[in-house]
Amino acid sequence: MKAMMGRLAGFVSLLLFMPVAIADSYRYMHVTIDTPWLIFLFLLVAVLLPFILMAILYWHNAMRRNAEDDAKGEE
Predict the structure, then answer these.
(1) End-to-end C-alpha distance for the chain, whole angstroms
(2) 2, 5, 12, 15: least buried by Cβ within 10 Å?
(3) How confident is the model at residue 68 (pLDDT cuts 50, 70, 90)?
C-alpha cells in the first residue's frame, strides 16, 4: 500500500511540475545563424556515410575476389 501511494505521489508531482520543466527548457537553447548549417552538416554526414561505407566494402571485396581468382589461375 505504501509503494502504491509513493508511486501515486510521484506521478502527481510529475504532472504538476512537468509544464514548468518544459517551458523552462527553452531558456537553455541558443539558436544562432550557425545552427541550420550545423544541422545540415550533421545530416549530410549521416546520409553520405552509408554510401561511403558501401563503396569501401565493395572495393575491399573486389580486391579480395581478384586475389582469389589469381590464386586459382596459378594452380
Answers:
(1) 80
(2) 2
(3) confident
